[in-house]
Design a protein that fits this description.
Blueprint (H helix, E strand, L loop, with lengths): L2 E5 L4 H12 L3 E6 L8 H5 L7 E4 L5 H11 L3 E4 L6 H6 L1 H21 L5 E7 L22 H20 L2 E7 L2 E2 L8 H13 L6 E3 L5 E2 L2 E2 H13 L5 E4 L5 E2 H10 L9 E4 L16 H7 L7 H20 L17 H6 L7 E3 L3
Helix pairs in contact: 1-8, 3-5, 5-6, 7-9, 7-11
Bound molecules: NADP nicotinamide-adenine-dinucleotide phosphate and ligand F7E.
Length: about 350
C-alpha cells in the first residue's frame, strides 16, 4: 500500500485530496496544527476523518515536520498548507512569508536530509502571475506578484524547481488557478457570496458588503483540481503544470448568478465597501491548461454557473438544517448576528465608508 503525507489536510484541498487518495487505496497521513477550536469539519463532512492518520505539527516548527515525515514514511508528499488568504497577507506579511514561503524549504530540506525518495507536490498559485500578462497565462508566463502571499508563493515555486534541478528530486509545481467548493473558507469571495445569498434567501440577513466587483478570475471546481495534483506525481518526469478552466468571470458575474439562482436581484442587496478593496489587487487572471491536458490528460468539467449553483444550493441546505436544529459539522458562524462580519477580515486598514451599490 502506498502512503501519502498531506500538509494542510484540514483545508479545502487537503480534505478533497485525502478522500481521493483513500479511494485510490493510499494510507493517508495528514499534518494538523493545534488550534483553540478544532478545524476538522471538512474531514468530517467528507466522512474521511476516521480513515486517515493525523499527526500534530506546525509548518514553522522544523522538528514536527521531520517527525511527520519519519512517522508517515511517505511515497508522496502533497504540500498544501499555507496562509492562503491574499487579503490577510497584507496584514501579516512576515508570517505569510514564513508559513507560505520558507516552509517549502523546511519540507524539501527535511526530505533531502532524510534521504527519502519521495515525490513532492508544491501548491503554487495563479496569484504569482499578478498583472503581468494580457494573454492567458501558461507555464512560460513571467511572474509579477502583487501581494506578500504571491511573493511567498513565487519563493516556494523556485525552491521546488531548485531542489529538482540541483538534487534530482521528483518535485512538481501545480500552478493552480482559483478553485472553489462548498468546503471553501468563508473569507474567500465565492463562499462569502454563496453563504450570504443563502442567508438572505432564508431571511437571516439582508445585505452583503463586497469590494472590487470588477476583478476577474478563472474559477474551477476544487474536487477536479486535486485530481491534477495526483496526476502530476504519477507522471514519468517531474514538471510544472497550469491547472485552470480557460474561462474568466468577474466578481459581479459571480454575484449575479448566485442571487438569480435563488430568485433574487443582486442590486437590492450588495453594498460596496471601500474597506474591502485591497491595497493592490490582481485585476484579471485566466489560465491556459494545454500542457496539463496534453501530458496528464486533465481537463475541467464543471462550468462556472454550475459551480456557483452547487455552492449556493449547499449553503441553503446547511442553513435550513441549522434552522431545524441540526448541529455542525460545517463552518457557518454559530451566531446569526453578522452585521460586522466584514470588519472581522479587514484587520487594521480603513479606506473609507460604505456606499450602496448603484450601476
Ligand atoms: P485553505 O483551505 O486555506 O487550507 C490551508 C491549510 O493550511 C489548512 O489546513 C491550515 O490549517 C493549514 N495551515 C496554515 N498554516 C499552517 C501552519 N503554520 N502549520 C500547519 N498547517 C497550517 O487552503 P486551500 O484552498 O485548501 O489551498 C491549498 C493550498 O493551495 C494552499 O497552499 C493555497 O495557498 C494553494 N492554492 C489554493 C488555490 C485555491 O483557489 N484554493 C489556488 C492556488 C493555490 P488550519 O485548518 O489549522 O487553519
Ligand atoms: O478574491 C475580490 C478580490 O479572496 C477574489 C486564494 O485561494 O485564489 C485565491 O485568492 C477577488 C479579488 O481569492 C471581495 O479583491 C471583491 O480580486 O476569493 P478571493 P484570491 O485573492 O483570488 C488564489 C489562486 C490563491 O492562490 C489564494 O490562496 O475577489 N473581492 N470583494 C473580494 N474578495 C474577498 N475575499 N472578499 C470580498 O468581499
Amino acid at each position: 500500500m502506498r502512503s501519502a503525507l498531506i500538509t494542510g489536510i484540514t483545508g479545502q484541498d487537503g480534505a478533497y485530496l485525502a478522500k481521493l487518495l483513500l479511494k485510490k487505496n493510499y494510507h493517508v497521513f495528514g499534518i494538523y496544527r493545534r488550534t483553540s477550536t478544532p478545524s476538522f469539519w471538512r474531514l468530517q463532512y467528507l466522512g474521511v476523518q476516521n480513515k486517515i492518520t493525523l499527526i500534530p505539527g506546525d509548518l514553522m516548527d522544523t522538528g514536527s515536520v521531520i517527525n511527520a515525515i519519519i512517522r508517515s514514511n511517505p511515497d508522496e508528499v502533497y504540500h498544501l498548507a499555507a496562509q492562503s488568504f491574499v487579503e490577510a497577507s497584507f496584514d501579516q506579511p512576515s508570517a505569510t512569508g514564513d508559513i507560505t514561503g520558507i516552509s517549502v524549504t523546511r519540507i524539501l530540506d527535511a526530505l533531502k536530509l532524510l534521504k527519502k525518495n519521495v515525490r513532492f507536490y508544491q501548491a503554487s498559485s495563479s496569484e504569482m502571475y499578478g498583472d503581468g500578462a494580457s494573454q492567458a497565462q501558461n507555464e512560460e508566463t513571467p511572474f509579477h506578484p502583487a501581494s506578500p502571499y504571491a511573493a511567498a508563493k513565487v519563493y516556494g515555486y523556485w525552491l521546488t524547481r531548485i531542489y529538482r534541478e540541483s538534487f534530482g528530486m521528483f518535485a512538481c509545481n501545480g500552478l493552480l488557478f482559483n478553485h472553489e467548493s462548498p468546503l471553501r473558507g468563508l473569507e474567500f469571495v465565492t463562499r462569502k457570496v454563496t453563504n450570504t445569498v443563502a442567508m438572505i434567501k432564508l431571511g437571516l440577513t439582508k445585505s452583503i458588503h463586497l469590494g472590487n466587483l470588477k476583478a476577474k478570475r478563472d474559477w474551477g471546481y476544487a474536487p477536479e483540481y486535486v485530481e491534477s495534483m495526483w496526476m502530476m506525481l504519477q507522471n514519468d518526469t517531474p514538471d510544472d503544470f497550469v491547472v485552470a478552466t480557460g474561462s474568466q468571470h468577474s466578481v459581479q458575474e459571480l454575484v449575479e448568478i448566485a442571487f438569480s439562482s435563488v430568485g433574487l436581484n443582486w442590486e437590492d442587496h450588495v453594498i460596496i465597501d471601500k474597506k474591502l478593496f485591497r491595497p493592490l489587487d490582481v485585476p484579471a487572471l485566466k489560465g491556459d491548461y494545454t500542457k496539463a491536458n496534453k501530458i496528464l490528460g486533465w481537463k475541467p468539467k464543471t462550468s462556472f454557473s454550475d459551480l456557483v449553483k452547487i455552492m449556493v444550493e449547499e449553503d441553503v441546505r446547511r442553513w435550513r438544517a441549522s434552522l431545524n436544529g441540526k448541529m455542525f459539522p460545517w463552518d457557518v458562524p454559530s451566531s446569526l448576528n453578522i452585521e460586522n462580519q466584514n470588519e472581522f477580515y479587514v484587520g487594521s486598514r480603513v479606506y473609507g465608508s460604505s456606499t450602496k451599490h448603484s450601476r
